Amino acid sequence: MKNLPIGISSFENLIKYNYIYVDKTEYIYSLIRGLNKIFLSRPRRFGKSLFLDTIKCVFEGKKELFQGLYIYDKWNWEQKYPVIKIDFVGGNFTNTQFLINKLQNTLNNLYEYHEINYVQKIDISTDFQNLIKKIVEKYKTKVIILIDEYDKPILDCITDVPTATANREILKGFYSVIKASDEYVQFAFLTGVSKFTKTSIFSGLNNLHDITLEREFANVCGYTHEDLLHYFADYLDDVDLNEVKRWYNGYGWDIDEPRVYNPFDVLKFLNSKKYKPYWFESGTPTFLVKLIQEKDYYLPELENITVDESLLS
Fold first, then answer.
1. What HEC string does the chain produce?
2. Mean pLDDT to the nearest integer, 72-86
């Protein structure tokens, strides 16, 4: 009986230590064969970090981890790529200096990991660009860039406009390096909660392909009902599946696709067998709650809102 992967975002640990893995490698195979600069928006605790880490393991050629999964006999495991993975999942970015220190420490660690001499520290963006070039020179192949929760340094201080603006400008310069280094980048993937199209961050990244609302990738994160029945069968004894569906199967990114379960909700429920709003209790965006309070918004109206894609962006 495999373990429930509560809070596990390392694909390698998940496989090695006998956790349940809901196979998403068919989506990964489709993405890395067909696109090379990608953006995906999903709420927190929906499996973005694990998805990104799985992509990392594919490009690093860790074939042994993928035995029995969709991609195992389809990918060329002999071709390996150096990976630059940056995540903003941990930490509180309500202070701009914290963001600067985080980026600098991340770059330091990446230079050290790839055993590249890090002599001159010019500025964060230049150091990032130099890192990409030096990695390509060392490995004689293009680099993979993965950025998790790209927008967290803004969302953490969204009600503090001066700090949010300062963080935005730092990130704008940092992310623009990806486009400027296009000739050295084999594949790039950014995830986040929101797409800040009107705040100039994406002006330097206008070559990203946004798959957030594409039908083909509607279920790229989250569990389908079939996933629940197939992968978690050992945990479903005496479970009322209709009640589980009523509680946790309400998410979707395509009007015609089946709904998906929030993974965090499902895993916490199967662990305790108690119905609670686990994701809402841990993942509610504070800034959104504050905004609703400030605008004195009439909450029942949220149930009937229909918006188009342009409003979302």
1. CCECCCCCCCHHHHHHCCECCCCCHHHHHHHHHHCCEEEEECCCCCCHHHHHHHHHHHHCCCHHHHCCCCCCCCCCCCCCCCEEEEECCCCCCCCHHHHHHHHHHHHHHHHHHCCCCCCCCCCHHHHHHHHHHHHHHHHCCCEEEEEECCCHHHHCCCCCHHHHHHHHHHHHHHHHHHHHCHHHEEEEEEEECCCCCCCCHHHHHCCCEECCCCHHHCCCCCECHHHHHHHCHHHCCCCCHHHHHHHHCCECCCCCCCCEECHHHHHHHHHHCCCCCHHHHHHCCHHHHHHHHHCCCCHHHHHHCCCCHHHHC
2. 97
Q: Report pTM.
A: 0.93
Lowest mean pLDDT, pick from 42-46, 189-193, 199-203, 294-298 = 199-203
| Mean pLDDT computed over 93-103 | 94
> Closest Cα partner for 143 from 86, 70, 67?
86
Rounded CA-CA distance 20/230 in Å is 11
> How many residues in the chain?
313
CA distances from 179 to 29, 123, 153, 304 (A): 23, 18, 20, 39
Neighbouring CB atoms inside 10 A of 27's CB total 20
Q: Tokens 């694909």 appear where?
A: 11
Categorize the per-residue pLDDT at 115 as very low, low, confident or very high, splitting at 50, 70 and 90: very high
Q: How far apart are CA 174 and CA 210, in angstroms?
A: 19
Q: Which of the pair, 35 or 286, is modelled with greater confidence?
A: 35
- Helices 124-139 & 161-180, crossing angle to 10 degrees? 30
CA atoms within a 13 Å half-sphere pointing along the CA-CB vector of 103:
24
**Between 272 and 92, residue with greater pLDDT:** 272
Measure Cα distances from 247 to 70, 133, 206, 261, 266 in Å: 30, 49, 38, 9, 9
